[in-house]
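Quiz preparation item.
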């Protein structure tokens, strides 16, 4: 394979040019804030540079650092690993150092960390004010990509500080300085998976060697960028990371450029320079040799909601959501942004290369449609490959993963398309791709914990990983991955992958032949379907939204965005008519009326014909017939008294209400974020369930008064039951449907039948799923059952006759589902 890029060697000096400038300014005196003002940096960046220098030079404090000269470097703790490149707070460094101690077991790491922490505290105490985090973008107008990089300005001349000297003791002879033993390069035997750096499921911005280094955070699996320099070193950036980090082939991780949060990808240009995509600042940066970054493209207002994509000169072009970047052989930089592909030319001009309105359509690139673009690569001939995730295809809910190519003639073609994983599709939320010179496409099949390969003839096969989640190096067929994501190919054919939810970088060598043996593709069986299920419209008119029909049959009425449902004591059905900002009641004789609201949007208490609601989303019946209503766009819990008057029962300080439900005794349960409250008739509340790590969705109450909810903690979704004495039991546990499981992360409604079966209304997968008392899951109704209609299930309840009622915000109706 011909080399595709050229890189630059590591800086040979003890300190980087940026660190030398900070050191010179430190010798002039002043606090971190004062030094930052002189150098045009942020105080946090100055503090980070100082801590990094202290760790590298093994010095005790700022005074010792100011007095240090290259010939006076102490050797107290030779071979100590560098400290974290960015210490964001006083608590986080201790946690990171603790992780380092557990893996490296080095007393030296603890000593240096405590010294650096002492200095950072000292620097913080000297601060006169808080500065912005990270290195600010230059204020000058950005140069086009082809413009030469600015020459760094020389640092102010510092007044030399005398180096302290000590009188040698005649009783002690000098101790020779030991020569450090070089760390050997990590070997990647053909056909094997080998870890280059990091430790599985231990996160943090910690530089070091191999397992002592740390990457990422537990929530940034899809926000890690990776590329390979011509010298074989691997470049990594992370959205919440310290900046740009280089991993040499011996596994040494070093931060080479500091950056505030927001980086989503890195690409190495033909001249070896590094380019960064910053999603937060909406900029494209180039990294200079001293680690500083200059803006090469991007501008506009600070808030993405206030801007639209704009082409033009690089310094005037506007990005809204840049995600991934890749270079073509002719020097164009391609940039993924939502559903379009942008191009930054070497002349410094930004244009829209392909795509427009969201959708899914092949054809000429200006007319093609993309949905959610996840990754990009370019082959040696200049063909562009993208990983697209589309929910704009028919056949049911969920996302369809597709590998698509824009050839050099400008034609877009879908090379492979996978059904949603919960319907048996082979690609489950893939997050990375890399293209070889021969046209093979490696794919990080994230949800299946495998590395897949799409051949030029369209065959998809797995080439590494058993598909069982875990962590195991060795032969590709027997290796274990956990959420592999970003991919990058080295010139020698080695494939590098971020794995273990972003905490590890691993390498896979396909060998001299450039190919790997196929291994079985992991998959998940589709759920079985219940037989004897029928559906009909209970209220509303299919596909017609409006506010009409009071006093007449519910099937002739018009609804708009119906959501929550509740069963009244007399058998009446209450529905939150969300977009009409009303609560409506369907009597047992089938007639419909407005219970309260329908007077416009707002939060106004008072009589039923004057009160206003703000997008009501869930309803429940409390004690004495009081109807409780949760508003979608705020934290209000409203109450409708039996006489129709509306009041605000509770205003929560924060956290939108996900769902509400009531038990047979009139108790009202409220689900917000990761907590469930019980509201008593006197207005007092108590927490009945707290899920520290997961999210609580849907809410139901069984005949015993036990609370049921769906606990979403990726990659799993569980149905949990909490009894009155606080005991929690998992009734059903599975992967999230994005990985091939039964439920998505957006179950909006739960209903409990008298036999103990639990029915879940899944908005994303557009289906109703039953969890039987024995823990088995089955499809009750889906795309086929609803007559090939796209639906949006929200509220659900079990009637006294054993039927189900389901509100549908897409078709503007309430469905009645019967099960034989």
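Solution:
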């Amino acid at each position: 394979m011909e080399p595709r890029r050229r890189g630059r060697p590591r800086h040979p000096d003890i300190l980087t040019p940026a660190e030398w400038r900070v050191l010179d300014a430190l010798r002039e005196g002043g606090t971190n804030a004062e030094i930052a003002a002189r150098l045009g940096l942020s105080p946090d960046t100055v503090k980070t540079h100082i801590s990094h220098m202290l760790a590298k030079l093994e010095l005790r404090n700022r005074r010792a650092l100011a007095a240090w000269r290259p010939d006076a470097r102490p050797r107290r703790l030779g071979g100590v690993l560098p400290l974290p490149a960015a210490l964001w707070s006083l608590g986080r460094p201790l946690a990171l150092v603790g992780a380092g101690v557990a893996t490296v077991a080095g007393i030296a790491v603890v000593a240096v960390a405590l010294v650096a922490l002492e200095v950072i505290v000292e620097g913080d105490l000297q601060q006169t004010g808080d500065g912005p985090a990270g290195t600010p973008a230059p204020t000058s107008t950005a140069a086009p990509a082809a413009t030469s990089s600015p020459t760094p300005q020389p640092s102010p001349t510092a007044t030399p500080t005398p180096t302290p000297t000590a009188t040698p003791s005649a009783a002690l002879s000098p101790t020779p300085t030991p020569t450090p033993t070089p760390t050997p390069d990590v070997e990647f035997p053909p056909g094997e998976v080998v870890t280059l750096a990091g430790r599985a499921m231990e996160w943090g911005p910690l530089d070091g060697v191999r397992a002592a280094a740390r990457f990422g955070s537990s929530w940034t699996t899809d926000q890690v960028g990776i590329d390979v320099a011509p010298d074989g070193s691997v470049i990594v950036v992370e959205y919440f990371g310290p900046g740009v980090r280089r991993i040499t082939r011996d596994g040494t991780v070093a931060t080479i450029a500091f950056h505030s949060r927001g980086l989503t990808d890195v690409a190495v240009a033909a001249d070896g320079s590094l380019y960064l995509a910053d999603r937060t600042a909406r900029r494209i940066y180039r990294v200079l040799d001293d680690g500083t970054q200059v803006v090469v493209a991007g501008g506009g207002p600070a808030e993405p909601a206030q801007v639209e994509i704009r082409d033009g000169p690089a310094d005037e072009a506007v990005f809204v959501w840049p995600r991934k970047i890749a270079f073509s052989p002719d020097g164009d930089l391609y940039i993924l942004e939502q559903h379009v592909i942008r191009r930054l030319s070497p002349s410094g001009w930004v244009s829209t290369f392909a795509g427009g309105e969201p959708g899914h359509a092949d054809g000429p690139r200006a007319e093609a449609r993309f949905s959610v673009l996840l990754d990009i690569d370019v082959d040696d001939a200049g063909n562009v490959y993208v990983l697209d995730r589309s929910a704009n295809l028919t056949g049911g809910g969920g996302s369809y993963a597709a590998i698509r190519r824009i050839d050099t003639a400008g034609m877009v073609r879908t090379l492979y398309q996978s059904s949603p994983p919960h319907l048996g599709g082979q690609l489950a939320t893939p997050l990375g791709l890399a293209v070889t010179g021969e046209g093979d496409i490696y794919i990080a099949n994230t949800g299946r914990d495998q590395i897949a390969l799409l051949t030029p003839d369209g065959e998809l096969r797995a080439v590494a990983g058993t598909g069982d989640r875990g962590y195991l190096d060795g032969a590709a067929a027997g290796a274990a991955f956990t959420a592999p994501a970003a991919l990058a190919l080295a010139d020698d054919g080695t494939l590098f992958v971020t794995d273990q939810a972003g905490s590890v970088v691993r390498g896979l060598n396909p060998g001299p032949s450039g190919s790997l043996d196929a291994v079985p593709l992991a998959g998940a069986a589709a759920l079985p379907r219940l037989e004897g299920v029928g559906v009909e419209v209970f209220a509303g008119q299919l596909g017609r939204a409006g506010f009409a029909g009071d006093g007449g049959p519910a099937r002739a009425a018009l609804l708009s965005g119906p959501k929550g449902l509740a069963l009244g004591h007399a058998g009446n059905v209450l529905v939150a008519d969300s977009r009409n900002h009303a609560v409506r009641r369907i009597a047992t004789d089938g007639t419909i009326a407005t219970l309260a609201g329908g007077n416009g949007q707002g939060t106004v208490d008072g009589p039923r014909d004057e009160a206003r609601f703000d997008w009501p989303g869930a309803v429940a019946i409390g004690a004495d017939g009081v109807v409780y209503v949760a508003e979608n766009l705020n934290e209000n819990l409203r109450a409708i008294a039996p006489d129709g008057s509306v009041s605000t029962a509770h205003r929560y300080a924060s956290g939108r209400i996900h769902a509400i439900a009531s038990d047979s005794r009139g108790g009202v349960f409220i689900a917000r974020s990761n907590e469930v409250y019980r509201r008593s008739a006197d207005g007092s509340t108590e927490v009945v369930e707290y899920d520290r790590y997961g999210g609580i969705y849907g809410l139901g109450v069984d005949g015993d008064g036990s609370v049921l909810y769906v606990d979403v903690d990726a990659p799993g979704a569980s149905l949990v039951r909490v009894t009155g004495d606080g005991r929690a039991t998992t009734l059903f546990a599975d992967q999230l449907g994005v990985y091939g499981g039964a439920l998505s992360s957006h179950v909006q409604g739960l209903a409990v039948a008298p036999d103990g079966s639990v029915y879940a209304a899944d908005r994303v997968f557009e289906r109703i799923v039953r969890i039987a008392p024995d823990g088995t899951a089955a499809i009750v109704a889906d795309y086929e059952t609803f007559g090939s209609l796209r639906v949006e299930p929200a509220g659900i309840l079990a009637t006294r006759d054993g039927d189900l009622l389901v509100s549908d915000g897409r078709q503007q109706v309430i469905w009645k589902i019967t099960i034989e």
